[in-house]
Amino acid sequence: MMERDLYPPISRFLQNRGYYVRCEVPPCLGSQRRIDVVGSKPRKGIVAAVEAKIGNYNRVLEQACLRMFVADFVYVSFHSSYAKKIYFEKGSELQRNGIGLISVGERTRELISPIQSKYVNPIRRSNLIAVMKNLEE
Questions:
Q1: CB–CB of 58/82 below 8 Å?
Q2: CATH number for the domain harbouring residue 73
């Protein structure tokens, strides 16, 4: 399994919650970095960002913390077997940081709900929404 294999179920998860979704979105024009999956509700000005990994919890946590500056809600996501391990071993750390956890397997489930980021920069969030709109053109 590759990281990209997680994107379609994560996308459906966000779409079922009313988000417009795009994958591998740069946080701003010209950026070499990409957010794995981004959902937006443009009329409400709300953005959810998901960083997906096959493993490497420390790397995904680092990426998720950076996403709190551009997204209202931030998740990390893993395949279900690894997600369960993270839930039991690192769940309290994710909750303390306000980061949600999505498990992808036969069913895609939210194991931890994110808390709305108090660090989100409205200009950066608006720029991310604009980048998403440009990707559809």
A1: no
A2: 3.40.1350
> If we measure between CA atoms, which residue out of 75, 70, 74 comes closest to residue 87?
75
Which residue, among 80, 78, 88, has the nearest Cα to 106 in the 3D structure?
A: 80
DSSP-assigned beta bridge partners for residue 77? 52, 102
- Max Cα–Cα distance, the chain, nearest Å: 42
Measured in residues, the chain has a length of 137
DSSP string, 12-64: HHHHTTT-EEEEEE-SSTT-S--EEEEEEETTTTEEEEEEE-SS-HHHHHHHH
Total domains in the fold of the chain: 1
Which distant-in-sequence residues (6+ apart) come within 8 Å of 118 by Cβ? none
CA distances from 132 to 21, 42, 103 (A): 8, 10, 24
Range of the domain at 11: 3-136
Instruction: Identify the DSSP state of 90.
Output: H
- Residues 8-44: pLDDT tens digits? 999 999 999 999 999 999 987 777 789 999 999 988 9
Q: Is the pTM of this model over 0.85?
A: yes
